What we know:
Layout: H1 4-10, H2 26-41, E1 52-63, E2 66-77, E3 81-91, E4 94-103, E5 106-113, H3 118-126, H4 136-146, H5 159-166, H6 181-197, E6 206-215, E7 222-230, E8 235-240, E9 247-253, E10 258-259, E11 262-263, E12 272-283, E13 286-296, E14 299-311
Amino acid sequence: xxxxxxxxxxxxxxxxxxxxxxxxxxxxxxxxxxxxxxxxxxxxxxxxxxxxxxxxxxxxxxxxxxxxxxxxxxxxxxxxxxxxxxxxxxxxxxxxxxxxxxxxxxxxxxxxxxxxxxxxxxxxxxxxxxxxxxxxxxxxxxxxxxxxxxxxxxxxxxxxxxxxxxxxxxxxxxxxxxxxxxxxxxxxxxxxxxxxxxxxxxxxxxxxxxxxxxxxxxxxxxxxxxxxxxxxxxxxxxxxxxxxxxxxxxxxxxxxxxxxxxxxxxxxxxxxxxxxxxxxxxxxxxxxxxxxxxxxxxxxxxxxxxxxxxxxxxxxxxxxxxxxxxxxxxxxxxxxx
Length: 337
């Protein structure tokens, strides 16, 4: 992953944070912090309302011993329509396209291989050789080593690989805090909107309360900490620099780890996920962090780099309606090197 050191400098250690509480109504203080942060991101007193947004970015993460790079497009029609499209080139004539969307209260997911079988795309992504019927038991071991799920013949449109690509910050082997896939999609967009815009989709109602200040271990920089709670077990902490009013990080508990086919015991320690953002740049009045690094228990697992931002593009509402499969997969371009 590129430029992780800059994100590490901003990634506060939540486990050792010392909260400095202030004598102030927590909800009132939270609204003050949010107002300043949102004005820093998009000042509606100087700009027209932010009605829609289109972002092109790249996602990088590892599976097994191989680094995977995915081209991501995020489109938003505020306040309740969001669409994330991921395109992955897996080899000559092979690729996977996934889409996950929110349309009001509805959330949906779709995936499709651009050519060949979904299983062939998964194997190419993992760096495995073409499938051979001569060693089925050895194949299972290779898949396990590469971090791929066991093969299933019940899902031929993207399968586990498609689900993994569609879930920003999804961590294999960690139980999400949400109760269903639809709730997980709503929560995923909410986390992304929080670190980028200090807001959530209107379909997920949340409350902000002021928790105090956290001290960064590296240089002593303090951050205002807001507790964010909502429906369907949604809970997160938002860290905002009191001087620049920029978001530094979002953190949440992802639940206990899953061991084999059985979930970890109820007493097992929860995994901590942190989304650290940095490299703020302003485009047409919108001040967004260009780098997002996701950490699991202090270990970086994914990086998102924003490449292009469009403010208030023309987006039609029907673009965000549920799709069972991706009808026109994104054309996969052959990567150099």
